[in-house]
Design brief:
TetR/AcrR family transcriptional regulator; 221 residues; 2 domains; DNA-binding; mainly alpha; 69% helix; Arc Repressor Mutant, subunit A; Tetracycline Repressor, domain 2; HTH_TetR
Length: 221
């Protein structure tokens, strides 16, 4: 289906501002973002920026999605050694925790911030602007990536474990919530500077407790 000129223009403009915001984040961190500087780098004024984004936090959310690229790329390496759905589930989480805990503010904003409940729509918009980032992505990863929010994404990731009989369907919602709460708790502590763990230590602790959750429901990990 042919895309109309107005849609193409919108995607192009959003791309300019997202690229400018990422440049600032890469150079000075997410705290350094300002609408005026982003607009200056993109070659437009702040008023134009607000034609495409609700506020600075909305732009920050879209710019943060750029940092999912390395996570998605690494998934292949992490999951290639998995032989069962449960092993694969934990390999995906290992990869996710590695990236999230090395960039806690970015990942916290994406998955638990103001705009996180609109993640599905934002990701679809994002990949319409940067379709090249979907290249070489494994097909079975896309449903998980495009989930409406992190709860839905994790539930999608659990489905193969349920289908193969590792996880009982009636336990899936409880396991899902416990896993997300564990991850969110650790991520929040890292964002707030309340944990003395390195990213690697935080990852290992999170995975350990996640495995305890599975074990409590009789799932061998």
């Amino acid at each position: 289906m042919e895309i109309d000129k107005k849609t193409l223009q919108k995607r192009r403009m959003m791309g300019y501002f997202i690229d400018a915001a990422k440049q600032i984040i890469d150079e000075r961190g997410i705290e350094a973002l300002s609408a005026r500087e982003v607009a200056d780098i993109a070659g437009y004024n702040s008023a134009t920026l607000y034609n495409y984004f609700d506020d600075l936090e909305h732009l920050t959310f879209y710019a943060s999605l750029r940092y999912l690229r390395e996570y998605i790329y690494d998934l292949k390496c992490y999951t290639k050694s998995a032989h069962t759905p449960v092993e694969r589930y934990f390999k995906v989480w290992e990869c996710f925790c590695h990236h999230a805990y090395n960039m806690p503010k970015i990942f916290n904003g994406i998955f638990f911030g103001k705009h996180s409940l609109k993640l599905n729509n934002a990701i679809k918009d994002y990949y319409s602007i940067f379709p090249e980032e979907l290249e070489d992505m494994e097909e079975d990863i896309k449903p998980m990536l495009l989930g409406q929010n992190i709860y839905e994404r994790n539930l999608t990731l659990l489905q193969p474990c349920i289908k193969k009989g590792y996880v009982k369907a009636e336990n899936a919602e409880d396991i899902n919530e416990m896993i997300i709460l564990l991850h969110q708790g650790m991520l929040t502590r890292l964002v707030m500077g309340q944990a003395a763990y390195s990213p690697e230590e935080a990852k290992q602790r999170t995975l350990f407790y996640m495995k305890q959750v599975f074990a409590s429901f009789g799932v061998e990990v």
